[in-house]
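Assess this one:

_____
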Amino acid sequence: MKNIVTLSIITSSFLIAGAYKVPEQSINSIALGATYVAHTNGADSAYFNPANMAFEESDKQLMEAGLTLVHLPENKFNGYQAFSATEVYSANGESEVENLGLPYLHYVSNPMGKVRWGASLTVPGGLTKKWNSDYQKLFAQEFTLKVIEFNPVVSYRVSDNFAVGGGFRVIYSEGKVYSDGNQVDKPIKREMEGDTIEYGYNLALTYKPIEDINLAMTYRSNINLKEEGDANLYIGGVGKQYSANVTVPLPASLNLAISKTWFDKFTLEFNYERTYWSKYKSLDFNYGSDIQAPLVEYFDDPIAKNWKDTNTFRLGATVKMDNITYMMAYSKDETPIPKEYINYELPDSDGEILSMGIKIDTSDTISWGLAYLHDEKDNITLKSGENKNGIIGTFSGGGADLLTLGVNYKF
C-alpha cells in the first residue's frame, strides 16, 4: 500500500493541466484547434508566433480579448482497485463535471521600423479533477490548479520574407490537493496548497519562400515549477503540518508548421507539435522537517512517472469571404502517460480534436468571433498487473468542450 497512497501534492494537479493542456488561447486558435503557427494574423500572433507580428500589414495597434468556457465531462471508471494479490475491491465511480472560464488578452504594438513588440496574458491551465466515489478519493478527492502566463515578446523583420521573434514567459500557478481514504479503511488523509512564480522563454521564426506559403517554427522552453506550500498529513485521524515543496517540469514544446493560401481566400495549414514530457521521470517531495513516524511510511517515497514525449498532428482550413472568415480543423493527440502509471488524478488517453469557428468584421476596426472545440478521448482498459497503482478496469468519458467568444480591435 505504501507506494499506492504516497502523497501526490499539487504536482498532479499541474499535470492535469499539462496533459489536458489548453494551447488554444484565441478565437482563431480555438476554431483551428491550435493549427495556428504558420498563418497567424492579428493580436494573437504575439502568443502563437511572435515572428509573424513583423508581417502584419496594419500600422495600427492590435488587441484581442475573449473568454473561453471549458466543460469537462465526468470520467467514469468500471473495475477494481487492488492493494495486493488478496486485497482487491470493486471500485466503480465517476468524477464530477467541471465548468471553468479562461480569459485571455493579446496585444501587438504599431511597427517601429523593422521591430514590433507585443504581449499576451493567458490561462493555459486551470483545470481540475474531483472524485466523490470512495476508492478514487483515496488518491484524488480534489486536484485543482490555476495557471496564469504573462508573455512579453518582440519581432524583427530581417528581410521582406524572413522574420524572427521571441520573448519571456512569466508563470504564476497555485493549486490544492485533497485526498481521503477513511471511507475504505485506509485512514490516510492529506490537505495541501501551494504556489510558485517561474520563468522561461519562447522563440519563433517565419520564412516565406513565395508570397502565399509560410514556413514557421516555434519553441517554448521547459520551465521547472517548484511548488511550495503547506501539507497537512493525517493517519488515523492524527495529523501534523509540514512546509513542503516539489519540482516538476512544464515541458518544452516544438512546433513546425507550413501554410498555403490560394487567391487570398483559402488557407490550409499543417502543424506538427512535439512535447517533451520525458523530462518528467519521477515525483519527489522535500519537507521543511523530517516526517515523523508513522507518516513517513506513506508520504515520503519518490514516485516513478517515466512519461514519454508526445506528437500532435493538426490540419486546419480557413476560408475568407468578404467580411466573414470561416475556420475548421482536425487534430490527433497523444497522451504522455504509459498505462502502468495512470492514476485517478489523470486518467488521460489518446484523443481526437474537432473544431470550428467564425469571425465577422463589423467595421474597419472591430471584429467579433465565436469558436467551438471538442476533444474526444479514447477509453483506457487496464488488465490485472498492468498498472503499478493497482487499477484494474476501464476508464471512459473525459475529454473537453471549449466555447470561445472574443473581439478584435485596431486603434
User: Anything to note?
Assistant: Residues 1-20 have pLDDT under 50 and may be disordered. The longest strand covers residues 188-210. Residues 9-19 form the longest helix (11 residues).
